[in-house]
TrEMBL record:
Signal peptide: none
Name of this chain's protein: Crotonobetainyl-CoA:carnitine CoA-transferase CaiB-like acyl-CoA transferase
Pfam families reported for this sequence: CoA_transf_3
Protein species of origin: Nonomuraea muscovyensis
PANTHER family registered for this protein in UniProt: SUCCINATE--HYDROXYMETHYLGLUTARATE COA-TRANSFERASE (PTHR48207)
Cited InterPro entries: CoA-transferase_III_domain, CoA-Trfase_fam_III, CoA-Trfase_III_dom3_sf, CoA-Trfase_III_dom_1_sf
GO molecular function: CoA-transferase activity
Length: 375
């Protein structure tokens, strides 16, 4: 079975996370992705460990399956010529060098599109190509200066990063979506185009209701721990043995919660009858819910509340989360042992994601690349 993007050649000049995540998504959907790496060291993430599996960094393994690797020193004229030939043959090029680097190498979009007018050229930057071009595009830095840390963690804390490089992942998703949109346009017109995404703009978009509150109403959000600024109850509570998350997003769910907890009449109390009232009287309501929930273990509440249609769940470890997904038939892991991978989350009935190749060893596909380039 051919993937949805079968027949497309992607020249992947990106490294670390945002770009490689985007190109892996394209590879999972059938594209041939050639990863261009530095000789000797390769992608930075090859050395980012522990943990390791089969001698490889699991960080590198996470975002580089279904790719082929060629090691090219872009300062070497002969290797640079191979890189240019690859770019000239490619349908898609993805890069995340500092702005201006690819232009200096003769690999910029303007230099390539004359010979390859159908090329979709995707540039991933930290802060765009204008005044922020020289700023280092690291996820942690963008979480800090982009506002995410200011709304994460406890109200009196110094600001907390997300537990994963979330901005890189979101930017990778935007990059892949932009490439697919540009390919759709190329299918209709034969014309390629440049796709640009930045970590900062991706984060500001991903802040959704918080960034909208600022843009439309001038409200500057602050950290609220596990609480939601606009919905109550929508946070972590204390059961008898462990924390339990409850997300009652409407009045019906709140009424069902009160019924299960035995808090008769609470849902009809004017202080709590509507979401706006519950937000205004958050502390008083949470205190009552905490007292009721402390009477039974989290697992018992989870079963009872779920049966009543109240969204809730325990705070799982990553291992617990994989077990839950497997129990729900989601097949979260493919392969076994050191070759095991986290499955692509996209389901397609006719052209599903494929797992054709394990993450490559550095430079292992030089012969394959040279053959498709005719040399």
């Amino acid at each position: 079975m051919s993937g949805a993007l079968s027949g497309l050649l992607v020249a992947d000049f990106s490294r670390v996370l945002a770009g490689p995540y985007a190109t892996m998504l394209l590879a999972d959907l059938g594209a041939d992705v050639v990863k261009v790496e530095r000789p000797g060291t390769g992608d930075d993430t090859r050395s980012w460990g522990p943990p390791h599996a089969g001698g490889d960094s699991t960080y590198f393994l996470a975002v580089n399956r279904n790719k082929r690797s060629i090691a090219l020193d872009l300062r070497d004229p002969a290797d640079l010529e191979v890189a240019r030939a690859l770019a000239g043959r490619a349908d898609v090029l993805v890069e995340n060098f500092r702005p201006g680097t690819m232009d200096r190498l003769g690999l910029g979009y303007d230099a390539l599109r004359a010979a390859n007018p159908g090329l979709v050229y995707c540039s991933v930057t930290g802060f765009g190509t204008g005044e922020g071009a020289g700023l280092p595009g690291y996820d942690l830095i963008v979480q800090a200066v982009g506002g995410l840390m200011s709304v994460t963690g406890e109200p009196d804390g110094p600001g907390t990063k997300a537990g994963v490089a979330l901005v890189d992942v979101i930017t990778g998703l935007h990059a892949a979506l932009g490439v697919l949109a540009a390919l759709r346009h190329r299918d209709a017109t034969g014309e390629g185009q440049r796709v640009t995404v930045s970590l900062l703009s991706s984060l500001l978009s991903a802040l959704t209701n918080l960034s909208s509150g600022y843009a439309a109403a001038g409200v500057v959000p602050a950290a609220m721990g596990n609480r939601h600024p606009s919905i109550v109850p929508y946070e972590v509570f204390r059961a008898a043995d462990r924390p339990l998350v409850i997300a009652a997003g409407n009045d019906r769910q709140f009424g069902a919660l009160c019924e299960v907890l035995g808090l008769d009449g609470l849902a009809a109390d004017p202080c709590f009858a509507t979401n706006a009232a519950r937000v205004a009287h958050r502390d008083a309501l949470v205190a009552q819910l905490d007292r009721a929930l402390a009477a039974r273990p989290a697992a018992e509440w989870f079963a009872a509340l779920t049966a009543a249609g109240v969204p809730c769940g325990p705070i799982n470890s990553v291992a617990d989360a994989f077990s839950l997904a497997a129990g729900l038939g989601l097949r979260p892991i493919v392969g076994e042992g050191a070759a095991a991978q986290v499955a692509n989350p996209i389901g397609l009935d006719v052209t599903p994601p494929e797992y054709r190749l394990p993450p490559p060893a550095l430079g292992q596909d030089e012969q394959w690349v040279r053959e498709i380039l005719g040399g």
